[in-house]
Amino acid sequence: MGLVMADDAKHRNVLAAIVYRLRWWLVTGALLVAFTLWTGEFHQAQTTAILASTLRHSTPLVLGALCGMLGERSGVINIGIEGQMLMSAWGGFMVASATGDLLIGVLAGVAVGMLMGAVLAGISVGLRGDQIIAGTVLNIAAIGITSFFFTQGRTLPSGKLRPIRLGPLADLPVAGRVLFSNKPITYLTLLLVPVVWFGLFRTTWGLRTRAVGEHPSAAETVGISVVGMRYLNLILGGGIAGLAGAYLSLEAVGSFERGMTNGKGFVALAVMIFGRWNPIGAWGAALLFGYASAVQTQFQFRDWLTSDPQFVGMIPFVVTIVVLAGFVGRARPPASIGQPYSRE
Amino acid sequence: MSQVSEATPALEAIGIHKRFGGVVANDDVNLRVEKGRIHALLGENGAGKSTLVNILFGLYRADRGEVRVAGEVVNLGRPRDAIDRGIGMVHQHFQLVPVLTVAENVVLGDEPSRSHTMFDFGAARRAVQELGERYGLEVDPEAVVEDLPVGTQQRVEILRSLYRRADVLILDEPTAVLTPQETDQLLEVLRGLADQGVAIVFITHKLREVLAIADEVTVMRDGRVVGSTTPGETDEAGLAEMMVGRSVVLRVSKTPASPAATVLRVNDLCVDDDRGLRAVNELSLEVRAGEILGVAGVEGNGQRELVEAVTGLRSVVSGIVEMDGHNITGLSPRQISELGMAHIPENREKHGLVGAHSVADNLVLNQYYRAPFARRGFRRMDTVTEHSRSLVADYDIRTPDVFTPARALSGGNKQKTIAAREFSQGARLLVAAQPTRGIDVGSIEFVHQQLIDQRDRGLAVLLISAELDEILSLSDRIGVIYGGRLVVVADASDLDRIRIGRIMTTGSHDTPAT
Ligand SMILES: Nc1ncnc2c1ncn2[C@@H]1O[C@H](COP(=O)(O)OP(=O)(O)OP(=O)(O)O)[C@@H](O)[C@H]1O
Ligand SMILES: [Mg+2]
After folding, report:
1. What is the pLDDT of residues B30-42, one digit of tens each?
2. Does residue B455 line the site of ligand 1, with CB under 6 A?
3. Where are the domains of chain A?
């Protein structure tokens, strides 16, 4: 009996601690929900539209952030996410349009991303080049290659990826449309967030990755291959960025356009930092950014405050900045990022 | 056939050469380590001991020469190769990941796991607890390494090597920051391992330990092996002479102190540690000009927090720190340093040096911005260079030149660099934590003599050391810290080793009957 009560008290304390640790997220969430209800004038359709579009906008950002995170957690800054996404968007689209199979297109996008990851690893880990320059090379190469080989007028014979309705769940009000009738890559992203979190913090691979990113020579002295871990993580991360690329061309738009990533790869880096190199945090941050874009679209759509659209568009960003100043305060990046590793 | 009757050595280095730029760190070095024997490796700071063992562990690549493990020539390209051949190592510069827990650090690279992927933290924690109990090296497995004092980090580093059950165990200065009791315990552990057949290479600057435990001794100087002996054939003075090439005074001579005005006064100081627990509890002390107050104590009793609070590196919960009558509580480290406080920190890599900067820059690290090292915001490099050249010569810092990055120095030479900087700035008060950590016998003599000379010129010294001998031989007054309080402060002549030892471990002081 006494034991049970003690246990209970412990659980309450844990809960209180979690609530306290997440206080900024909770405050932000509450503010944003209030704002959404206000803009939607308690109108279900509007609210649903904003939330659904938040999720859509956040998808490539989360994926990009996960890619950046795998690199940085193992000690390599990846500013080439933008380039990786763009190449994959193009590669995925070209393959899908040639084969007529969207799945093969997505796989091709992922493969292109992994290849880009391998190139980044080759320059920055293998040759111990400067990581910032290596990332820049990817970005420039991606713009050049995708514009040069891009042919106008190609289409997807089978159209873009279609939503999958998850049975009766999809019929729920609001949540049904927001969460349970999404397209495949969006689902996959929602799955990847906890998977990567689990990987980083609960598996030996994650422990080794973090050790390599914090103190490579310590990892080396216990027999972990620093170079090997960095290659592995950059290639895995590249695959995730590839998925983001495939999302853009095959799920969101259904075609390829020059420079269609439009800075998302860089925003993803900010998302990663705001999320403190943690997948769950990054997901929260991406939702915030996604929400900002969604609200803006909504305002344009409803023709509100059109005389001063920038002003309204600004509100969520201001909220974001204010609140995030609270989060990022004590964030600490992995200690070894940016430094090429050599033993002696 | 009969020629090979002598057992093959467990580990053998033959004709090892290694250069770093212009420095020859190892020059035709040979070393034979037998199974079941403890082989002590001695030598001055910068003699090349760490370089040699790093080659044996696959961290550095020899330019020439070969390594044999159990008679077989091996190519140790990276530590993995050495680990796979049963070699384990305790590193002089701890190889611990600061943000991970003790348990994670100990098992890293060889983690207990479920279905080969999921890290089993519970099993790691139990492993650390078991090891700690078995070897008398207990550490909280869930503590984060960067929050731990250096002595505890040292224990973690040792546990990490024991966890792997090596056939050949290399220990590079494992006792530099251990208390005498912990050292004795470790020596016992090593003896036990040797009896089970483990071959051990043991590097230390403490000759007492060598005599107590070594089966063989190899001495290096300037990158070469200059001799080998056994404890039976020699004594401390003999070993010291072999290392340094001249006879060494192992005890400092000092005249009684003539203390003047109070320089440092600490009143009812309370300080919390990183976890928010009270580490220093209503502690009061005074240090006067011209005296050395030694603080003895088992590590983790508030020494680190006391030092950090006094030097301005940690905020104070309550109480007052005064220097020369000014309240300095809450001032920044630079303001405090400008008032004339010098500080030799316990963690030289983290707080003492900027590894990527040159030796010269490190020697003016707290003065670079002011005259004579800078004028109107521009640094005067000639003055800096000249100043640092003279310190390098005075303190016998072994470095190719003053422009070498500090991280390339050997451990003892890093320590000497810090000591040189802190001694040379004309301070009123010196707070010295483990000031001679890893310094060889010849240089300890010099550093101790400097300390006494400066004291005689009116320097007030607050000395914190795990080394009881150091406290006893230098201090004019000794305080014993226990549970964040100074339980006794008395003239050095009124306390002896045994009594201090008892107070350190029990915290109670039996007042002698009057
Ligand atoms: N990574 C490095 N880069 C450049 N020089 C180095 C490096 N490591 C060691 N050295 C130089 O090699 C020489 C031998 O250093 P080593 O660390 O082997 O000395 P040590 O005998 O271990 O000394 P200590 O007792 O002070 O630890 C020194 O002159 C040092 O400056
Ligand atoms: Mg050394």
Report:
1. 999 999 999 999 9
2. no
3. 42-330
